[in-house]
Design goal:
Elements: H1 8-27, E1 46-58, E2 64-71, E3 74-77, E4 82-88, E5 94-99, E6 105-109, E7 113-119, E8 124-130, E9 143-148
Parallel strand pairs: 1-4, 3-9
Antiparallel strand pairs: 1-2, 4-7, 5-6, 5-8, 8-9
């Protein structure tokens, strides 16, 4: 009868090798995206996607209540980096908009994608305002926020 003798040092060595291999697979994967908001140096443009959306309901009198919005309502973009903002028109015929504090403006039409290339040189919060829905009297406010850090 043959016996296999396993030394304690072999078990420790095997465990260390296993841990090393697993760590290298987790941390040194090619094309892995970091999760701390940083991007790889090979990116072309940061791209942010938004859509136009609508909430509707009825009040106690049976009157329809509508409210339009940008979704997501807030995006965080890097300062001094050129970004691409893509807004898809889902609800509402059209949404003319401005980005407060900039010269940027445009129109989002239902079923179409509006794409802007932007670069913010100052940190802060910029409001993306639909001029057709600026307040509650016009089924708004339809405002998105662009936070520049």
């Amino acid at each position: 009868m043959k016996f296999v003798i396993i030394k304690r040092s072999w078990i420790i060595y095997s465990a260390l090798c296993f841990v090393l291999v697993m760590c290298s697979l987790l941390f040194f994967r090619p094309n892995a995206l970091p999760v701390d908001g940083e991007t790889s140096p090979t990116h072309d443009l940061y791209t942010f996607h938004m859509v136009t959306g609508e909430f509707s309901s009825e009040d106690d009198s049976g009157n329809e209540i509508e409210s339009y919005r940008f979704d997501p309502g807030t995006i965080v973009v890097p300062k001094e980096e050129e970004i691409k903002l893509s807004i898809l028109g889902v609800n509402g015929k059209e949404h003319p908009f401005i980005i407060e504090g900039t010269n940027a403006k445009g129109v989002v039409e239902k079923g179409k994608e509006t794409i802007l290339t932007l670069k913010f040189s100052k940190e802060g919060t910029y409001r993306l305002i639909c001029t057709a829905h600026p307040d509650a009297d016009h089924n708004g406010p339809m405002i998105g926020y662009i936070v520049v850090k």
